Amino acid sequence: MSDLKERACAVIDRLEPKLREVSREIYENPELKFEEFRASKLLAEELDGAGFEVKLGVAGLDTAISAEHPAKADGPTVAIIGEYDALPGLGHACGHNLIAAAGLGAALAVGAVKGELPGRLLFLGTPGEEGGGGKVIMVEAGLFDGVDAAMMFHPADHTVVDWGSLAISEVEIEFFGKAAHASGSPEKGVNALDAVIQTFNGMNALRQHIKD
């Protein structure tokens, strides 16, 4: 392990009580998408206290955060992502309190040795992950412009570096039929329901049998 990495890890060890406190605070006070006022304020204050140049309320979102470490140099720009919204009726069942605390810890740890590293270090707090598209709004507002790599942590039951998954895309399909007498001249009609069923069966077969 390099000296820089050892020192960064030592910072995380030292900050462990604080990071646990941040996680617990967010967990015990769940806030829904775009209403994460308490969580975003808490994270912004911690980053500001560590010397980051913090902007709260960016991209037209009151609870979005953009924070940059003041030690800037030529090289890649790396963004560490933090999520902190809860699920309706379930609280932090998806572990966004852990994502926020881990992202904060990573930013503070790398920030402690950033003066000896090239490039720029950002922390981007992305609200409205659960159905709000906060990251999309921030991308469209230019908050990710110039970012060479963006990374985050998500809780799971085992540790992996890269987790592949299928994207979720919304598609709206409208079916049109043609009325006809069901017993007298069914051949003159177009059954839109049949088309719906065939489409569903085809998509279901793709999902089950095609890996990517």
Helices and strands, in order, run as HHEEEHEHEH
What is the domain tally? 2
Q: Helical segment tally?
A: 5
Residue-averaged pLDDT: 94
Strand content: 5-15%
Rg for CA atoms: 23 Å
User: What is the spatial order of strands in the main beta sheet?
Assistant: 1-2-4-3-5
Helix content, binned percent: 25-40%
CATH topology name of the largest domain, in short, is Aminopeptidase
Which structural category do the helix and sheet elements fall into?
alpha/beta
CATH domain class name of the largest domain: Alpha Beta
Q: Would you identify the regions where 5 or more consecutive residues have pLDDT less than 50?
A: none
Going by CATH, the architecture of the largest domain would be 3-Layer(aba) Sandwich
Overall, the morphology is elongated
What's the end-to-end separation, in Å?
Answer: 36 Å
Write structural notes for this entry:
By secondary structure, this protein is an alpha/beta fold. The protein folds into 2 domains: 3-151, 3-Layer(aba) Sandwich (Aminopeptidase), CATH 3.40.630; 167-212, no CATH class. Helix content is 39%, strand content 11%. It contains 5 helices and 5 strands. It has helices spanning 3-28, 37-49, 96-113, 134-140, 192-209; strands spanning 53-56, 65-68, 77-82, 120-125, 149-151. Strands 1-2-4-3-5 form a 5-stranded mixed sheet, with helices on one face. Strand 3 (77-82), helix 3 and strand 4 form a beta-alpha-beta unit. It is elongated. The protein starts with a helix and ends with a helix. The mean pLDDT is 94.
